[in-house]
Amino acid sequence: MRLTLAHLYPKQMNIYGDDGNILALIYRLRQRNITVTLKNIGLKNPLPLGSFDLLFSGGGQDSQQQLIAPDLFKRKSVIQKAVQNHIPLLAICGAYQLLGNYFQPLNGPKMPGISIFDAYTVASKQRKIGNILIKSIFGELVGFENHSGNTFLAPTAQPLGKVILGFGNNGQDKTEGCQINNAFGCYLHGPLLPKNPHFCDYLIQTALSVKYRRQVKLTPLDDRLETQARAAAVKRTRKLHHPLLKYFQ
FRET pair for 104, CA 20 to 30 Å: which of 135, 197, 244, 245? Predict the structure, then answer.
């Protein structure tokens, strides 16, 4: 078996270790002897439908988002069709915002999104930063968030999860991220997939199942180190959010 990963805007949208998600995907594919091809898709590089099996894009500052937004909008039809075809997609932070309906920065014009997620984002002066833990259909997911944008989901949109500890989409409604079909957007940097190998494997398994049009079962890996690292990240998150911590600050 083989998979093609498309990494959208790796030079512009790669902050807080987001490219570690690509490294995790490649590592876990190669450990199972699955051939993987990585396509780095920069500005104006072609991305025809059918040329990728899994799509990823990371976070960036407002200036980077302004740079890629027009190019991303030209790819709207291709990405929408890929999501409709259930091809897995993972978008972190800035990419997540531009895959919504729009992003309004503090300074500058509104950036139209490509409406993969029925959501919109408005910048604020408050920065939401720190470790985050959420409850999702994949169990608990742990990560690190650092964003000033407040994302609000439409009433019918499905969040990736509910915030256990941290801020999430907007620091108000306890939602984090958004999902539709096999497309997922969220604010979890860190990067997300090395800290949550079970979610990484879900994306791989789904991509293979969609490509080969049959249910694919992945060979289990020795995840003792990954499990220990994840447990340490969860423990640290719970410790940093302990209600008594404020008395020692």
Answer: 135
